[in-house]
Amino acid sequence: MDTKNAYAVIKRARQILKSAKPRHVAQKTHQDYMNLGARVMNDKKLLKEARTANTYYKRLSAYNYCVDYSIRSLLAKQDREQKTKAHGWTGTVKRLERAIREYDEAQAIKGDKPTDFEPKQSKRKHVRGLPPQWTQQYWENVDKGNKYAPVIALLLISGVRPAELQKGVQITFHEKHVVLFVTIWGAKCRGDGSSGQKERVVAFDCEGLPPDSPEMFLVRHYLAQPNAAEDGVFIQANAKALYNYVSRLSRKIWPRRKHHVTPYTFRHILSATLKKSERFDDEMIAKVLGHASCRSQLEYGSVRQGGRGSSILDVRAEKTPRPHKNPNKNPR
């Protein structure tokens, strides 16, 4: 490649990046996108073969991210090579040219999406048809000596994500005020802060609660641990193993149900319960669920699915959730 053509390629790459919005994602998301994007890059049929819209857009997003990252990386590399007068910088530009061709192909694909997707499988379906007091029935069937008992208690009262439980959740207890504090380090958080809450602390009023409630079980679990007052108590669970435990117990309790309870079902029912209560506004619900936007509540349980109430007293989050853009569209 001669110098003139090389500079034309570099100019085009800069134009592409100027029009593209940089994406800031967590390291794990970056790695997942790069792996999936590379697969799509090598086999475009993966886009056509997507059975659901969610899978299609996930693959397309990963593909675009991978192409964008390749252009940025190669452009930066050739810049360094030019400055140091490194031998063979035109070889990097050739790779950059191939990345640009991939970019052009990705742009063409955007307008050629499949239309025969299967219907979306909403997680809300797991809540439908369950008995009115199913959470209480589920908790009664949990073996309180099982290692997952504290985890299930946390799912019931806080709606914590399985990925957050895999990181570890901290509980502390204020004996004087009989308040249980649950500190959650968020999942689904972007580096630019546009989604998720990096940290949230949910306070639960335990005064007067029945001894067999999930909250009081956690209080007893906390008090039984040495050095709990100094360090708090950390509760962790492998997300996949937790899913298996939760669904297995669900099948045992309700063997005739088609859709069984999963860890996310507790999150949906908590959202529905908070929406049903007049004590919680959209901003507070978003904080409890670890959302950066009130709009995210649209994807979760509806008011009619809500339970009797919640012991949540207050919640502190890293940032104030963005209000819903359309005030006429009620997240509830």
From TrEMBL:
Compositional bias (Basic residues): 322-332
MF annotations from Gene Ontology: DNA binding
Record domain Tyr recombinase: where: 125-314
PROSITE patterns: TYR_RECOMBINASE
One Gene Ontology term from the biological process aspect of the record: DNA integration
Keywords: DNA recombination
Annotated stretches, region: Disordered: 301-332
Protein name in the entry: Tyr recombinase domain-containing protein
Organism: Desulfohalobium retbaense (strain ATCC 49708 / DSM 5692 / JCM 16813 / HR100)
